[in-house]
Prior knowledge:
By secondary structure, this protein is α/β, with parallel strands linked by helices. It has helices at about 1-30, 45-60, 70-80, 95-100, 125-130, 145, 165-180, 190-205, 220, 270-275, 275-285, 290-300, 305-320, 320-335; strands at about 35, 40, 65, 70, 85-90, 110-125, 155-160, 185-190, 210-215, 230, 250, 255, 260-270.
Amino acid sequence: MKQKYLKTILGTILTSLLIIFTSCQQVSNSKTVIIRTAYNSGWIEELFQTEIVNIGLEQLGYKVEKPKQSDYPVIYISIANGDLEYSTIYYQPGHEEFFENAGGTEKLEGVGILTPKGMQGYQIDKKTADKYNITNIEQLKNPEIAKLFDSDKDGKADLVGCNPGWGCELAIDHQLKAYQLEDTVEHNRGQYTILLADAITRYKQGQPIIYYVYYPHWISTVLKIGEDVVWLEVPFTSLPDMQNITEEDTLVDGKNLGFSRSKQGIVANKKFLEANPVAKRWFELVEIPVADMSAESLRIKEGEDKPEDILRHAQEWVKNNQQKYDSWLETSRQSTN
């Protein structure tokens, strides 16, 4: 009887130990899911977004590797192949081809809207706009209006454009032709940041300026809309690829800016999302305002551009948005398979 009792006690102890061991193993396994990511080497602002996302992933129990740098096509393919779990690079419109070429919805999934309300278009200094009542880029067909923005004295307006090879370079060239501006407007293409710096110098000297701009970008923290500069409308929507694009897509606050409104989300490996609903819910919730991205872009431009600087910026952003950030974390924790 005593021996039977001892066996029962021993069996109970062994069962308890097995349950404890199994539970510990499950917790350990859930906390050792490794997440790998990458950002574009030519747009370091994406590292800021990535660090904000990663801080939360770590608080949710994941192990996050240091973000890598690469080019967009390679990042998409790496995520599709399972060499990366996610990236903050899902721009719409703009990255549809990268997405499809890497395997499309069979291997990838776009999640959330990380940075909403992105926009592009043309801006001129408010002083010149008010003085000559300039509201539409079509008005630059008038040689006298165009000459106001002629900085190199060749008789044409000097429009600050894009880097050669960028999608906006093709769009600007297309629109100058579509709006019959080729005879009066010169598209100055080159190193975009250098061209903008020159435009800012001319603005500070009281000279008229005209430039292409996209948001988020640091330029909006230097030349403020409504105070320093204003948007120019376009006469009608015309882009190199008009598939599935209507005038409604290029309207911002009732103004036709000529370029589709944009948004940036997260692209992730589909199998990873299926196996990790907590991470997926986190990706769906994180959102960084355009104004905050523009402010970060300016800090980077002014020299705080090392990975450790950007991590510090991300930590500061989390602290400044702690209540909202914590609510995202709590909602994510409630997600289960």
